[in-house]
Every structure is written in C-alpha cells, then in structure tokens.
C-alpha cells in the first residue's frame, strides 16, 4: 500500500502540537507556582544542537488551508489540553490493570480514542495498535500494512502522582519499519519528532545522541517497570547493583518513550528496559536512530518491537559493553 508520509506527518503533528497553543495552566493554580514554568531543553545540553537546525514545526501542518471544513479541530484541541495539561495535578479515576503498579486512568483511554478516531478519519485503510485497545482485547498484530502504534499517556504512574515526565507517543510503521515518530510532553512543552532519513528534532532544533565510548563516563537510564514479577525484579536489581560502580550514574524517568528521547538528545548515553510493550518504544526507536544512536535487543541482536525488551545507546561501543554486563530476561512477546 502506497503511503503519503507527508500527509501522515502533517496530521499527527497537528493532533499533538496544536494542544500547546493555548495559555498554560489557566485553570490550575498549582501549575502557576514559582518554579513550575516549563523550560526546554531541561537537561541544558545545548552542545547537541545544530545552529542551523531545520524548523520542522514550520510545515504545512500549521497552514490554515490544510484544514478541511469537516475537521472538528477546535473540539479536539480543547479536550486534548484539558486531558493532559489540566488533569495532571487534578483528581483522576485510576484503575489497576495487571498489578498494583500497572495503572490506567480515564485520560489514557480518552486520548487514545481521540487519536485513533482522528487518524482513522484521514487514513481509513491504516491499522492501529494502542495500549488501551490491546488491554481491552484488541490484537497486537504488526503487519506490513501502515500501522499507527500509540501510547496515549506514557508514564501513567507519573501522571497519577503529578510528576511531569509524561508524554504521548505516536509512531507510524510501514513494512514493519518505523517511518514517523512523535513523542510529546505537553506539560514541559517538549516535542520530539523524527522522520526516517531526515534526522531527529526537539521543538524544531536538530538533536544528536552522545558519542561517548567509555562506559565509566556514561549516564544510563534504567527502569523498574510496571510489573512485580519476582524473576524480573531479581534481574532488574541485579543489573542495577552491577552497573552502579561501573558508570557515572543511573537515572529513571518513569517513561520508556522519554528515556529513549533522553538518549536521542544525549542527556543519557544509553538506556535499556525489560517488560515494556510495542507502544512504549515504537516512536523512540526511530528517534534514537535518526539522532545517530543505535537501537538493539538487550542481547545485542536486532531490535524487535514486539519482544518487550530493548537497549539503545549513543554509540555501538557503549551498547556492546552493556550487553556483556547485564543479566538477560525474556518476557512473553506482545
């Protein structure tokens, strides 16, 4: 099936980026506290930017003639703002899924429905894999057909607690390869984008992964995950204890997509995780690659988006060192 990537990119960028154009925090006094005003990039590593970066936000997606008369964009935009930016410090309906740390809120479900319905309207022949749809019984079936892989709120635990490391992660895969990626944190106003062969960007500025090759000088991203399986937790803790004396430090953001974005921008030199799902990593995989990094299976083999494990790094050298050190874990496939 022929896919117009320009059209796909314009629509998904519109669906995510437009939500940041309204006044921030208008209905949330807590958001207006001193020190909570978003600044980006928050890691402050400007050395990973290019001074002549392409402005990927200045696309046809922002031109009025793009909108069709029957597109109810205003309604979608207002709902999106309320769901993400205004609810993070407000009351939430929280439901446990597989265990007490695997959570879903009404916000996750509503955003996914909005994204899928909006994209489906424009691309009726495309397929979809969404976290909450799969939780409700839909199959996680990745074929050669154009497939949107969506995590409506990556970092749900953070969202529940009002911790601002949350994002929407959307990727378009064609022929089982990622072509478009958007990771958007509307609270901190960080928009990460990538298109195959065109580089990776944060808020329109080109980003690059770290070029560090010495593990002892690396900052690594690690996660505990949303499972309390004893075998998995034993592996997680073993690897953390093993790595601590060998690296500069370990960091945990609570979001696989944002962990991968941090590696893409050089904020961390590598990160890995066991037990994640396709929707957690489908966008981040392309972002890391387009930033010049590598994305692998934790064993060092080819990355498989359905394997529920990954390792990404700024350099192959660092990735190889981590593969030799960490203990492996094999979750059930998506």
Automatic annotation (TrEMBL):
GO MF term (any one): inositol monophosphate 1-phosphatase activity
KW Magnesium (keyword) present: yes
Residues the entry annotates as binding Mg(2+): 131, 151, 154, 280
Top-level taxon of the source organism: Eukaryota
Coiled-coil parts of chain: none
Cofactor (UniProt): Mg(2+)
Family: Belongs to the inositol monophosphatase superfamily.
Protein name: Inositol-1-monophosphatase
């Amino acid at each position: 099936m022929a896919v117009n990537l320009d059209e796909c990119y314009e629509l998904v960028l519109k669906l995510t980026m437009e939500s940041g154009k309204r006044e921030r925090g208008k209905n949330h006094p807590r958001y207006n506290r001193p020190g909570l005003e978003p600044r980006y990039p928050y890691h402050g590593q400007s050395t990973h930017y290019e001074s002549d970066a392409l402005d990927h936000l200045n696309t046809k997606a922002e031109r009025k003639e793009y909108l069709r008369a029957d597109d109810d964009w205003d309604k979608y935009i207002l709902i999106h703002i309320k769901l993400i930016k205004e609810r993070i410090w407000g009351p939430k309906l929280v439901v446990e899924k597989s265990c007490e740390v695997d959570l879903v809120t009404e916000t996750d479900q509503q955003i996914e429905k909005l994204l899928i319905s909006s994209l489906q309207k424009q691309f009726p022949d495309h397929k979809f894999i969404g976290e909450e749809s799969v939780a409700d019984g839909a199959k996680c079936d990745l074929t050669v057909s154009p497939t949107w892989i969506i995590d409506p709120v990556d970092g749900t635990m953070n969202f529940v607690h009002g911790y601002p490391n949350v994002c929407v992660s959307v990727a378009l895969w064609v022929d089982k390869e990622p072509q478009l990626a958007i990771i958007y944190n509307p609270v901190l106003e960080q928009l990460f984008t990538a298109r195959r062969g065109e580089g990776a960007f944060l808020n329109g500025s080109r980003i690059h992964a770290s070029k560090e090759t010495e593990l002892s000088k690396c900052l690594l991203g690690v996660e505990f995950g949303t499972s309390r399986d004893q075998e998995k937790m034993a592996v997680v803790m073993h690897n953390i204890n093993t790595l601590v004396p060998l690296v500069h430090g370990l960091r945990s953001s609570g979001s696989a997509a944002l962990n991968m974005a941090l590696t893409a921008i050089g904020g961390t030199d590598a990160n890995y995780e066991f037990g994640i799902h396709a929707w957690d990593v489908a966008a981040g995989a392309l972002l890391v690659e387009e930033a010049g990094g590598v994305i692998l299976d934790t064993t060092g083999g080819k990355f498989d988006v359905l394997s529920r494990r990954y390792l990404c790094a700024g350099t192959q050298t660092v990735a190889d060192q981590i593969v030799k050190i960490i203990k492996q874990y094999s979750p059930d496939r998506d």
